[in-house]
């Protein structure tokens, strides 16, 4: 038992030692199609410094609009971000990059089931402001297309549909740097 605890402690130490930051985030995204409304999500993110100018970030988000409605929505993204040269200092920086997001939502009611998958490549521009050397706030804007694929079934009948649309979003976060 002792060896297992020490192994888990060592693994946790190694896995977080190389991390740039761990944070909480909230997002608002809107796809520009008729009768579409935007949605809020909340999640966590982990960012890893590649070098002093660039970072890889991965995050996962849950859509709170789905609680109690019989719908489950989950999404996430991976992003490569790079600081603008000559902009910023030790207290703040401005960055740009690209992300690739994947979302899934599923619901069922009275024998009918629908599942929707979304793939969202996006361009990203944002800023980070550090309140202390460890704690920071971030804000960013992302724009890009969303490719959606839906599957529906009722009893033995099924159908599929696909669509794409342009969208945009904003993201705010609070991060702790290691």
DSSP helical segment count: 1
The helix-and-strand class reads: mainly beta
How many DSSP-defined strands? 8
Instruction: Note the overall shape.
Output: elongated
Average pLDDT works out at 85
Going across the major beta sheet, what is the strand order?
1-2-3-4-5-6-7-8
Provide the descriptors you would attach to this structure in a database record.
elongated; 1 helix; 8 strands; mainly beta; 9% helix; signal
Structure description:
Helix content is 9%, strand content 71%. The model is unreliable at 4-17 (pLDDT under 50). The longest helix is centred in the N-terminal third of the chain and has 16 residues, at 2-17. It has an 8-stranded antiparallel β-barrel. It has a domain at 66-178. The protein is elongated. A hairpin with a 3-residue loop joins strand 4 and strand 5. It has 178 residues and is mainly beta. It is built from 1 helix and 8 strands, in the order αββββββββ.
Secondary structure elements and their pairing?
Blueprint: H1 2-17, E1 21-31, E2 39-49, E3 54-62, E4 71-88, E5 92-109, E6 112-130, E7 135-154, E8 157-177
Antiparallel strand pairs: 1-2, 1-8, 2-3, 3-4, 4-5, 5-6, 6-7, 7-8
Question: Brief overview, please?
Answer:
The protein is mostly beta strands and 178 residues long. The protein has one helix at residues 2-17, and strands at residues 21-31, 39-49, 54-62, 71-88, 92-109, 112-130, 135-154, 157-177.
